[in-house]
Batch of 3 targets.
Target 1
Amino acid sequence: MRFGFWPGAGNPWAEVLHVSRHAERSGWDRLWFADHFMPPAEQSDETQHESWATLSALAARIPRIQLGHMVSGNTYRHPAVAAKMAAQIDVISGGRFIMGLGAGWQEREHTAYGIPLGTVRERLDRLEEACRVVTDLFRYQKSNFEGAYYQLVDAPLEPKPIQTPLPLMIGGGGERRTLRIVAEYANEWNVWGTPETLAQKGGVLEEHCRAVGRDAAEIQRSACTLLLYTEDAERLGRARGAGRPVLGGSRDEVLRTVQEYVDAGVDELIIPDFTLGANAFERTEQMDRFIEEIAPEFRQ
């Protein structure tokens, strides 16, 4: 199993760079960054680093691990523009970029910036077209596409990504449409969820893969979960009641839960820094504890 680290986009840039460098030095496998212009409504601090610029900077300053979006909102940028940006970061990084793409969801920032959100169906229709646009641009010298939302006319993309193909990760757990799009286009799939959620939705993904004639084993699977090292049952209960899966408790409890993710077919566990401490020192302590005590038990 791989272990990915996700620095918070609201932390000061110096801290984002510090914990990202620390993740590489201490043995984390991948680095992820959220694509939002504003934090969720429940957060009072409006600080939010722009993700594509941040990942470009990290790609140039961190030399080893893979990095990508968790995930980029398709509603924010024309997919041909996003494909051009992704290819450039892949060049900058020497072939380490993963293009994460999702349908978009956060109504608050769409309203604030005047970006049309559309219905769920419209967003999924757009996402499906966008996947076709980016994969064609990465593959062909010139691309043509006539969709309801996007059109390409002899569109070039040079320089091409170093990776062939540049990995496309689709985020989301919608069983009827999103997982079908994953089956058709994605190299990787990501969703927030417990081991039970990943096992159940993974079965749905396999059904979609059979329907489109694809081997489900070709698609890597990753899960996001909060990490909370504590044996305080009340604190754990509050965290779990907030609506996100929580990897928590004692070392043995954490080990058991990670094994459940492995058994559910998860290839990578992604840990945000949201619950790891109030500053970079506290966060890196918790990062080290996990990567030294837990990760070695699940690496080949």
Target 2
Amino acid sequence: MSSEQDQALAQSLLSGEAWRTFCDELKAAGDLIISDQVPQSPLQRAEGFRYLTRVMRMGLEMVLEHGNPEAPQLWFQDETVKSGGDNPDNLYYWGRIRGSYSYRLKGVLAQPEYLTINIYAGGLNQPGGRRIVADLDVADLQLDSEGRFNLVLAQYPPGDECAGQWVPITEDAGTVLVRETVADRSAARSEFQIERLERDQPPAPLDPLAMAKALRSVAGLVRYSSKYFGEMARQWSHTPNTFFASDADASASSFGNLNYQYPSAYFEVGADEALLIRFQPPPCVFWSLVLYNYWMESLDYRYRPIHLNKVTAQLDAEGFVNIVIAHRDPQLTGYQWLDVEGHTEGILTLRFVGAEPQPLPHIEKVPWSSLRHMQ
């Protein structure tokens, strides 16, 4: 961006125009929630507007409050901020960086089920889109006897051999995402920190240009996320209760991980119906199955059984997991119930971590009355 454009953008903040534009963008995003393109039940509409507030909050935290690459901080995504198919088994830590700088990312692991560190570069509105330029899991980390690691994120190798384990990044690198997979979110968590190596003084105070850019970026995130995930759900809804294989390129562009498979389906289940799924989990590092609403937000796992994983699933004598998805618990022998939380439609996603490509499970929709014959 030229200096003239920067000056104009900064002036738009001082005049109030940037704020008005930000508000107009949010209003435009809200028009999608009430359009005939998305489900219009009272529950779906309420969740749609809540989704916009959550994505806006996520953007403000990541871009404005924790988004200075000169003085980076890792932001923890809590249970009330959901976007892009969040996984209840993952703890997410986000950091904003700039490829022309060098950083130290260090941590102490608390025996997670799995851990990945991804560096993303580019952007959705840039040539080549967003892509993964560094992909590490726990096996790639040089850990000491206490589970500590020390990474240097930089374009070039650090001069000091003791500086840490070098992770090459590109000039357009912009985001660090640490995923810690846990079987119990209440257990002890790993600790992570990031710092810029060249930093020798406090970051500059907020200025009009930085604030204007932050507002523009957050508005763009809200607009893009609602459109992107709404279109994805709408496309899947044409063939309900059928799993689709994941798309690696689409996954990377939306902050996915290359070592994951994400088979997904658009589910439809009435109040007097149930969905039955039976599959054999493959040999893998970890797997899970999660229920989402239309906007790819996990249902409220704090209070309801809306997902299963490698640890919580109960396998039958043949090594299969049997799942019933319904509005109430049928107490069906040999099946584990997942609660749709009042939703008659939404998204269902499997995750296989470190597995060979898998056949897609079959989803069977049955009348609720037929379940009593399965006891």
Target 3
Amino acid sequence: MTSIARVGVLSVHTSPLDQPGTGDGGGLNVSVREVALRLAARGVHVDVFTRATDPDVPPTVTMADGVQVHHVPAGPLAPVAKAEVANVLCAFTLALQQHPAAGTHDLLHAHYWLSGWVGRRVAERFDVPLVQTFHTLGVLKNATLAPGDQPEPALRLVAEERVARHADRVLVLTCGEARLLHRTYGLSGARLTVVPAGVDLDRFTPGPRTGARAASTAPELLFVGRLQPLKGPDVAVRTLAEVRRELPTARLRIVGGASGAAATGPAQLRALARELGVADGLVLEPAVDQGTLAQYYRDADVVLVPSRSETFGLVALEAQACGTPVVAADVPGLEAVVGRGGTLVPGHDPADHAAAVLRYLTDDHHVAAARKAGLAAAARASWDRATDRLLDVYRDVVEQRDRRRRTEVEATRATA
């Protein structure tokens, strides 16, 4: 069996050290961090390369034994909008190629299209395989554009196509994403592998409510995620308004930071709540650490995930691991995660989402069934299982590259 000793991970626009739910931090950050830690536990050294954004952060941070995060200088030593990161990709590529760890890896794994753009060039420079995970695709986002959101630029669409065609293997989070890549770019099944994201089953577990929630009988809804049109926090607020027609004491907690377009930032959500007459039932909080988030899931009666588009519903999976029912939009990335542990609602009509929520708030048997099914689904989706699957893919990709090289050498000898 091929041994994988060192892996280079590219996460150009966001670092696994960043707080999920703020800026550009989200499921990608969680995935890179959790997998890197588990690869290291299996004896694989992981170098994560991300853009340097803070002069006070060291060039290299050891996240754990066997996991180092390298901050590559490219552009200003400050955060920049994700849409502007493309302007510094050439600088990032040149700096990475000169990094002491460059060229020492068995393969590179790029996350998101910006990293893929860099990975394509660096992998060619050092003659190593490239594995690509897009997490989101521009063609899908543009096809399901949310009100107030901006379409993805042509540069991204062209880059995604070239990276998809160049990578030795494209990893997808769901079968739906695989079908989209096949239809859009003609990728064969041999170059696509489904590796679903996981959930930390040590942290996200069922448990009692705490603090004020332990004594409260008011229904509580929870929305977790970046505050951007794509994620639908406006739908969550409108759903609260519909639920309160039947249950006036219901409340909605929104946890997350503004990201991208400001059409659904905190100020806009507060204004919407005032317009709908539910401002007294809305609580807005910044992103929190994973331990606090787990307790928020336990404290909630229902978790809302009304995304207009979702590649993989990590929030929905975490909520189910805590035994909390989920009401989510029926989009491909959520369809793959939300089974009988929740309810998938066609479209984004708040009245439809509220109807699904009200059933959980008024039917204990419905809640119990969803809780049981959600816990069972989450138990099958651990990060350890995802990491084992990923390591198998790494070995396969390296073996294929080695076989191809041997074939080329033999062909050269035969014609010499």
